[in-house]
Amino acid sequence: MSLSHFDEKRNVVTVSTPWGKWWQTVGEVFLEVDVEEGTLPKQIQIQIKPNSISCKVKDKQIFEGKLRRTVRAEESTWVLEERKRISILLVKSDPPNTEHIWQSLLVGQYAPNSSEFVEMQKQLDLERFQIENPGFDFSSANLSKCYDKSPEQPTDEESKT
């Protein structure tokens, strides 16, 4: 079974935001930004730097700030889909075999709530198992690890944004 087959079967845990949603895998962070239908690429300004991101549409700041962790800016990209949604791909700089999970998209902003965070941790662990054991199917596995005591869990302050 390939990793892409695993990706199709697993449940992605998304975090809703005022502008759309975001989610992560062990190697990437994905953002979907909802924009007014008919938006043109020339009306979009996105800056991706190793430690920060900025998104403007029609001269209106959608979001900007310091990323929770470092990304490979030169490998990260974005595309306008159907003139109504911007899809942004951020490539994590941490190696996929590390336990680094983003507690929020930006420092102090767009954090998952506690239950979303636990589910996100479980999905990333399953993805890591799949990478380490490519011949096995972990897509419907249940993990018994105690996630609610993780030091990486977002603070109450981060969960509110």
Quickly give the structural class.
alpha+beta
> Largest sheet, order of strands side by side?
1-2-3-8-7
Number of strands: 8
What is the approximate shape? elongated
How far from one another are the termini? 38 Å
Q: Please give the share of residues in helix.
A: 10-25%
Largest sheet composition: 5 strands, antiparallel
Global Rg:
16 Å
List the uncertain runs: 1-9, 149-161
What share of residues are in beta strands?
A: 25-35%
List the helices and strands in order: HEEEEEEEEHH
What characteristics describe this protein?
three-stranded antiparallel sheet; five-stranded antiparallel sheet; disordered N terminus; about 160 residues; alpha+beta; single chain; 3 helices; elongated
Topology summary:
Elements: H1 3-9, E1 15-17, E2 20-24, E3 28-34, E4 44-49, E5 52-57, E6 60-66, E7 77-81, E8 85-91, H2 114-132, H3 156-159
Antiparallel strand pairs: 1-2, 2-3, 3-8, 4-5, 5-6, 7-8
Describe the structure.
This protein starts with a helix and ends with a helix. Helix content is 19%, strand content 29%. The protein is elongated, with a radius of gyration of 16 Å. The chain has 161 residues and is of the alpha+beta class. It has a five-stranded antiparallel β-sheet. Strands 4-5-6 form a three-stranded antiparallel β-sheet, with no helix packed on it. The chain has helices at residues 3-9, 114-132, 156-159, and strands at 15-17, 20-24, 28-34, 44-49, 52-57, 60-66, 77-81, 85-91. It is built from three helices and eight strands, in the order H-E-E-E-E-E-E-E-E-H-H.
